[in-house]
Design brief:
TIM Barrel; 10 helices; L-ribulose-5-phosphate 3-epimerase activity; single chain; L-Ru-5P_3-Epase; alpha/beta; about 280 residues; Xyl_isomerase-like_sf
Length: about 280
């Protein structure tokens, strides 16, 4: 049976970690995904003291709910493929700190977005720099027994599990794997999402669950804040694919409702939507 988690950005921002963990536990989730985004506050988590880390570990033990994964989206601001050497080095240091934080908190898996550049220009050099610096990150992660997983993105650079596997041909390590986003792989017209998941099963360690609108010749698609069931992702078909191929990793519901007054209601609705379809796909028997 797969584990179903919730990303931190779905939960009310003002809650303490103990309150977020308790809410997720009460709702029946199996884990929370921590966010280390571009904000100074969340990047500051990478410099937490030993006491701050221990306090969160105690909260997890008290509630009996782990933080299994970390979303390191702060790398959009400091991309591994940056042509500016100081930014690329900052990116590597952020990854180092994230790996140590994950080790200290018992987090198993760090999600890295599949961007060589996010705000800057992309070219052959940024791709090569991304691969070079990713190798350094994965080597450090291997030393600390932490998984690095590349997420399939809202960007053509890495928008399928197949493209993660191409990167893995250059960065060869069991500590580098794929973190497909069902919404993102479904949005790109060149992808056959079910086949992408089936072909890439050996690389998949975690999956994001969100809805999206497709990219077309006339529209850019929509990759965030599409309510579940109103987008174009065929969740039942993809869940049936995952059941058939024997996927046993985690599924994480991903939303950005942390500043919404009805964040808890949105979480409950999304969880029910996903669990109903997982049951139809045969995951709950």
């Amino acid at each position: 049976m797969v584990k179903l988690g919730i990303n931190e950005k779905s939960l009310p921002f003002a809650m303490t970690w103990r309150e977020k963990l308790q809410l997720a536990k009460n709702q029946g989730f199996d884990f929370i995904e921590m966010s280390v985004d571009e904000t100074d506050e969340r990047l500051g988590r990478l410099d937490w003291t030993r006491q701050q880390r221990w306090d969160l570990v105690q909260d997890m033990y008290a509630v009996d709910l782990p933080i299994d994964t970390m979303m390191l989206s702060g790398l959009r601001k400091f991309p591994l493929g940056s042509e500016e050497g100081d930014i690329a080095e900052k990116s590597y240091l952020i990854c180092q700190k994230a790996i140590i934080l994950a080790r200290d908190l018992g987090i198993r898996n760090i999600q890295i977005a599949g961007y060589d550049e996010y705000y800057g220009e992309k070219n052959d050099l940024t791709r090569e720099l991304f691969i070079e610096n990713l190798q350094r990150v994965v080597d450090f992660a291997a030393e600390n027994q932490i998984m690095i997983a590349i997420e399939t993105m809202d960007d053509p650079f890495i928008n399928s599990v197949a493209k993660v596997q191409e990167i893995k041909q250059s960065v060869r390590s069991p500590w580098l794997q794929a973190y497909p986003d069902l919404g993102n792989i479904s949005a790109w017209p060149e992808n056959v999402p079910g086949q992408d998941l089936a072909d890439g099963l050996d690389s998949i360690v975690a999956i994001h669950v969100k809805d999206t609108y497709k990219v077309t010749e006339t529209t850019p698609g929509k990759f965030k804040n599409v309510p579940f069931g109103r987008g174009e992702v065929n969740f039942l078909g993809l869940f049936k694919t995952l059941k058939r191929i024997g996927y046993q990793g985690t599924l994480t519901i991903e939303m950005w409702s942390e500043h919404d007054a009805d964040a808890i209601e949105q979480v409950i609705e999304a969880q029910q939507f996903v669990q109903d379809l997982l049951a139809q796909a045969g995951f709950y028997k």
